[in-house]
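Notes to self, Enolase:
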Amino acid sequence: RISGVSLRRVLDSRGNPTVEADVLTVSGGFGRAAAPSGASTGEHEAIELPPGEAIAAARKHAVPRLVETVHAGNQREVDAALRGADGTENFSEIGANSAVAISMAAAKAGADVLGAPLYQHLGGAFRGENFPVPLGNVVGGGEHAADATHIQEFLAAPVGAPSVAEAAFANAAVHETVGELLTERGVPAAKGDEGAWAPAIDDAEAFEIVAEACERVAEDVGFEVTFGLDMAASELWNGDAYQYGETSRSPAEQIDYVADLVEEYELAYVEDPLEENDFAGFAELTDRVGDRTLLCGDDLFVTNTERLQQGIEMAAGNSILIKPNQIGTLSLAVDAIETATRNGFTPVISHRSGETEDTTIAHLAVATGAPFIKTGTVGGERTAKLNELIRIAEDAV
Ligand code: PGA
Ligand code: ZN
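result:
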């Protein structure tokens, strides 16, 4: 049983405050986890409260329901208590940031009590042996960097990598090569919130550079390294059209544009090609290029099983991004993963632009056999997850 929960404000990778939770059990188990935070958040996400408010509300409503009554090892029970304590549909009472920090910390405490690694506790004895391919942000802009590309993320996708370590190093090599190509072109580039280069170039030039870098690295490592995108199109959408600086694309033009990009660059992955309520547009795009690429809903689905259900019925997309803090608990995130997998949608486990050293998503990806994880390429809060995957691979495969 849980004997105590403590909550504090800690720093995230942007220097903003976020919620960290410690969970202690009567038998001496301990777990600690911190909530990440988005910048290009979807309008249908669970509510992130200012950390001070989230902590005060969780102390008042959630902690008394957990302490002395709930078993840390019973994740469904922990997460049901969190939902009961909150009482709303979107965690607006205690904050999804408090909820997800407690949910993840309890999972770690449960694993500690069992003496098992977290991926084993979450995945169970009959867990499969799939290991996720990391998608690594190498060029980015949008809401993650000012005066850079309009498309939010260009993601290296080392789909042919024989191991997660080789995949992570291939992504790092693409990142480095992109940096060299930018220097050759005399383009100075700082890094955005997720560690990707944030050069002041147009999207067309970014496609050229990333394609070239992936080709060079693929030749070097001897396996397929391709790339994908997070277009974060809700951030480009002005209510009528998709706005790329001066260039404007109607919804129909946006669909043509994305379909052409998929063909021209053989993109492995396109996230949020359309704004967060356009299920019909997603369905049309899926009809056109869904057999050739992953069309992933992030802001569209927000890790919400009901919204995913609508996507499944309409064949809107073929993939879902999974961010536990979008929905508030690990149980709800796993529900979305299981619904996706049962219906042929590919789950992609994901970090947020504001991150911490927390590695729960690496364990979640291995536990659920998710084929992909999107967790950046460089920067300590990103490599924390990648290095954890490298360690897990030593004993899990
Ligand atoms: P966010 O961006 O964490 O700022 O929402 C990541 C994404 O859009 O995938
Ligand atoms: Zn996204």
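- The chain has a mean pLDDT of 97.
- The pocket of zinc ion (ligand 2) is lined by residues 230, 232, 271-272, 298 (CB under 6 Å).
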